[in-house]
Structure formats: structure tokens, C-alpha cells
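Shipment paperwork, digital attachment
Item: protein structure file
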Amino acid sequence: MITNMSESEVALLSRMWEEHMRAPFPPHMRGREIDGEDMVLLDADIAGCVVSSLSGPLEEKRREILLVCLAAVEKVLPSIDDEDGASEYYKHLRDMAALAVELGNANARSR
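Attachment content:
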């Protein structure tokens, strides 16, 4: 059973996802790699895992993908300029990934 705290975290993640869906992808990040990370793929991987976490508890594989993506975002953030709001876009992705991981940890503990 999901606790009240994680219910409010799910609501927060849902709001963050809605904001993300309204935000345009920074055009200059298409086809771009930073420190070996494909910026479109990083966005897509996090998005897929966040959507899964909103549907129910994350399976271990997706949780691991999120952890790898979270580390990748942290690695590339200092190299992202703010053209087209790119740094804010990726900070928002990072925050969603971190919250989804946190929710996954809470769900794993409650089992």
C-alpha cells in the first residue's frame, strides 16, 4: 500500500510530468552529445521511466535505468548552456528522475 507521503510525491511527479510535456525540447540539443551522452536519448529514457512510475511501482530494471540517467544528467548539466532554456529543461528532467527513483525506493520498502 502506498503511504500518504508517497501519494503526495506521486501527485508532485504527475504535475512535474505535465509541466515537462508542455516544455519544448531545446532545438539545439537535437543530435547533440555531451560527455558521451546523447541528449535526446537521455530525455527519452527518463521520460519513459517517469511515465512507468506514474502507472505503478517501477520494476527494478527501470529503476536502474533511472539511476544511470540521473548520474548522466548530473555529469552533463555543467556543460549545458542556457540557450533555449536547455539547462532548466535538463534540471527539470533531473528532478523528475530523482523523484521517480525516490518513489521506487518507497514502494520497494513497503512491499
